[in-house]
C-alpha cells in the first residue's frame, strides 16, 4: 500500500509541475490577448488557429536564440540566478491542496503533494529565497541598470513580505492551523474566509502584486528607467526562465489566495451533492473532481485580474511604493490583527458566557 501511495505522489508531483509550466506558458498568450482586447487590437493570430500556437513559437525562439554572457560578468552566478528563480517558483505549489480526496478501490488519495502542518510557513520560506535569484542575476551581470533593478527587487520584496505575513496572522488566528489543507477544510460549503477577513484579503492582494513584480509594482524591471531591470543582460532560455518564474509565481499566489480566502476547492451545496448519490464513493469522487474544477476556476479568475490590472493602472514611483508598504499596509495589517483578536474574544464571550 505504501508503494502505491509513493508512486501516486510521484505522478501527482510531476502532474502539478507540468500543469504549472503549461499555465505559465499560456499565460503569456492570454496576457497578450487581454492586452489586445483592452487596447482594441487583435493580438496573436498567426501561429495556429486564433494564435494558440504562439506560446510554442515563443518558446522555440527562446530555445534557439544565441546565448550571450557579458565579458565582465560572473559566469557562474550569471547562470545560477535564473536557475534559482525557476527552482523556487516550481517548489511552492507542493503544499497547495488542489482538491479533496479521491477514493480508488480501497485507497484514498489526497490531491496535495505534501500535506505538512506548516504549509503557509513553507511557502513563505521558499518564496523568500526567490529574491536571491533576482539579486544574484542582477549583480552577476556587471551592469548598473541590472544591479539597480536587483536592489529594487530585494527592497520591495522584503518590505511587502512584512505586510503580507501580518495579513496572514489574522487568518491563522481564525483557523488555528498553518496547514493549507486544514484551512481549506474549515471553509466547507460557503463558509469562506473572505467574509471574515475582507481587509486582510485586500492587504494580501496588494502585497501579491508587489511580490510578483507586477504592474503597478514592476519597478525592478521598469523599461522606461532600467531598460529591463535585473534581466537586462539575459537572452535565450535564461531570460525565458525569469519570465516563466514570474508567471508560475502568479499561478501559485493565485492558488494561495483562493485557498486562504475563497474556500479553495469548496463550493456551495457540495455536501448535498455528495449525499445525492447512492454510492458514497462515487458521490465523493464526483464532488472531488468538481472541486478541482472550482479551484482552477478561482485561480484563473485571479490570473485574469493580475493581467487586467497590468493594462489598466499606471506604474507607481519608487517612493510611493515604499510609502504604501511601510506607512499604510503594515499599520493596516496590525490593525486587522487587533480587530480579529477583539472579534474572537467577543464571539467567545457571547457564545460561551
UniProtKB/TrEMBL annotation:
Its UniProt entry gives the catalysed reaction(s) as: a quinone + NADH + 5 H(+)(in) = a quinol + NAD(+) + 4 H(+)(out)
Cellular location(s): Cell membrane; Membrane
Report membrane topology: Multi-pass membrane protein
Sequence intervals crossing the membrane: 6-29, 77-99, 119-141, 162-184, 190-210, 247-267, 287-309, 329-350
Where does it mainly reside? membrane
List keywords of the entry alphabetically. Cell membrane, Membrane, NAD, Quinone, Translocase, Transmembrane, Transmembrane helix, Ubiquinone
Q: What's the EC number here? A: 7.1.1.-
EC supergroup of this enzyme: translocase
The residues the entry assigns to the signal sequence are none
- Would you kindly state one Gene Ontology biological process term found in this protein's UniProt entry? aerobic respiration
Q: Which domain of life is it from?
A: Bacteria
- Which PANTHER family does the record associate with it? NADH DEHYDROGENASE SUBUNIT 1, NADH-UBIQUINONE OXIDOREDUCTASE CHAIN 1
Q: How does it assemble?
A: NDH-1 is composed of 14 different subunits. Subunits NuoA, H, J, K, L, M, N constitute the membrane sector of the complex.
Q: Which family does it belong to?
A: Belongs to the complex I subunit 1 family.
Name under which the protein is recorded: NADH-quinone oxidoreductase subunit H
Amino acid at each position: 500500500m505504501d508503494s502505491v501511495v509513493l508512486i501516486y505522489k510521484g505522478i501527482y508531483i510531476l502532474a502539478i509541475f507540468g500543469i504549472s509550466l503549461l499555465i505559465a506558458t499560456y499565460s503569456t498568450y492570454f496576457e497578450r490577448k487581454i492586452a489586445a482586447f483592452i487596447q482594441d487590437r487583435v493580438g496573436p493570430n498567426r501561429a495556429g488557429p486564433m494564435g494558440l500556437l504562439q506560446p510554442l513559437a515563443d518558446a522555440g525562439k527562446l530555445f534557439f536564440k544565441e546565448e550571450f554572457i557579458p565579458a565582465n560578468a560572473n559566469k557562474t552566478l550569471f547562470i545560477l540566478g535564473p536557475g534559482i528563480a525557476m527552482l523556487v517558483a516550481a517548489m511552492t505549489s507542493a503544499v497547495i491542496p488542489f482538491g479533496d480526496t479521491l477514493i480508488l478501490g480501497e485507497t484514498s488519495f489526497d490531491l496535495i503533494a505534501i500535506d505538512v502542518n506548516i504549509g503557509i510557513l513553507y511557502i513563505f520560506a521558499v518564496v523568500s529565497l526567490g529574491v536571491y535569484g533576482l539579486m544574484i542575476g542582477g549583480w552577476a551581470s556587471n551592469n548598473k541598470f541590472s544591479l539597480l533593478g536587483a536592489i529594487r527587487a530585494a527592497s520591495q520584496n522584503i518590505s511587502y513580505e512584512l505586510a503580507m505575513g501580518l495579513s496572514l496572522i489574522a487568518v491563522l488566528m481564525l483557523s488555528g492551523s498553518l496547514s493549507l489543507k486544514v484551512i481549506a477544510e474549515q471553509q466547507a460549503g460557503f463558509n469562506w474566509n473572505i467574509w471574515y477577513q475582507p481587509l486582510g484579503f485586500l492587504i494580501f492582494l496588494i502585497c501579491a502584486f508587489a511580490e510578483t513584480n507586477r504592474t503597478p509594482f514592476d519597478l525592478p524591471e521598469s523599461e522606461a528607467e532600467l531598460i529591463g531591470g535585473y534581466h537586462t543582460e539575459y537572452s535565450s532560455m535564461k531570460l525565458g526562465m525569469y519570465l516563466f518564474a514570474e508567471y508560475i509565481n502568479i499561478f501559485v499566489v493565485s492558488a494561495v489566495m483562493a485557498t486562504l480566502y475563497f474556500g479553495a476547492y469548496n463550493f456551495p451545496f457540495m455536501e448535498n451533492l455528495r449525499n445525492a448519490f447512492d454510492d458514497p464513493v462515487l458521490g465523493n469522487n464526483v464532488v472531488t473532481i468538481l472541486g478541482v474544477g472550482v479551484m482552477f476556476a478561482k485561480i484563473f479568475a485571479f490570473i485574469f485580474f493580475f493581467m487586467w490590472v497590468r493594462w489598466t493602472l499606471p506604474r507607481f514611483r519608487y517612493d510611493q511604493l515604499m510609502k504604501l508598504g511601510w506607512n499604510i499596509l503594515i499599520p493596516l495589517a496590525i490593525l486587522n490583527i487587533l480587530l480579529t483578536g477583539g472579534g474572537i474574544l467577543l464571539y467567545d464571550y457571547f457564545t460561551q458566557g
